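Bug: token stream looks shifted between consecutive jobs. Job 1:
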Amino acid sequence: MGVFWRRWLSAYYEDRVLVTVQVERVISWPDIACAGEPTVTGEPLSAHDPPPQDPPKNGTAPRIDVRRAARRVATLPHLLLAWIGADGSPLIAPVSLDGSSPEGLHLSGPLPTGGRRAGLLAHRYEPQLIGLEVRQYTGWLRDGIYAPHTERGFRAPANKTVLLLANGLMARRGLKRARTLGRA
């Protein structure tokens, strides 16, 4: 890495957050579709699904354009759903998009029963993260229909030079803002 890139990316490398995770359980399946009986290492899985959650105050219906969300999700090869299990720990499983309707996105895969809040992540990562796209949703899941409430996402260019320039710029802006707020 040359002098220019070292200087340009200095804020990118300076602004790091240490995250420590204590793993209590790992679940693995014999195939990528999470079919079959899982192998559990650590705390055992609950024998039953979590009880249904109370619906949100603003209702369970979609709050964003479902057709647009379905188009965006359909173009990405990996789709993960996350929810809180019966023991209060998060569960994450790969799912598939089987279409959409005004009620929401129709999902299949290892889904919990009953209505509940859930997060949906659709993504594509290219080699060395040069070119990636991520779509994140929060919403309500019931009977395999996911009603998205919020949406966030980004697409990084598949050009390494443009990607490094953008990373440096965003890191500089973020670090400056954090210092202004007294957080860095």
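Job 2, same session, no restart:
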Amino acid sequence: MPNPRLAVAQSSSTRGDIAGNVAHHAELAESAAGHGARFIVFPELSLTGYEPDIARKLALTTTDPRLQPLKEVAVESGITIVAGAPTLTEAGLHIAAFIFQPTEETLVYTKHHLHSGEKAVFDPGRIRPMIELDGERISLAICADTTHPSHAAEAAQSSASVYAAGVLITPSGIVVDSAQLKGYASEHRMVVLMANYASPTGGWTTAGRSAIWDERGREVIAASGDGEAILIAGRVCGVLHGELIRP
């Protein structure tokens, strides 16, 4: 069974600058693909920055022309890109992850669990596509989703082999949240990816320290702190090995 090289983008975003953020995402995704990655996940709301106060006017749909560069990179570089943005549906305003695929199909995951401060702006989502990629089944999560053990358990029950989370985690929360994700990896025998912000966003200081854990809960690769980085994990003789790239 083939195993794709998986990547995490520890990236920065500019408040409300969708075009600029899209261009930066495209550069990082192309860089990851150049190192053999077939999948990359970005932080929560990475295409707009974590900016709840302007999220409604920044809400995107899969047909928004500003997303075209990411669709093109996905097709031309053969990489699946997961990037965060707000989206509006009949059920309300959601924190979402847009999934740009080499097949040219764009899917959307909507965040299931909200932090208390988000509930005044956003609505919980229910959309949860599974990504099939080179023999792996990838289930997504967005930040607070990972604080609910049932969310990771449901992914495992759906035969997910990879649990990929785009997050915004502060220095005060990184130790606890990382330990929980590491625990999901070993408990559910899933590879776990965590993509955190590289710099402050929405008034929040971010910890960086993005990471990848293998299905035994072993840390494969992690950023030592903040600052932009791409983390890549791939298998050699069945064992995951990591590589860190500074853009």
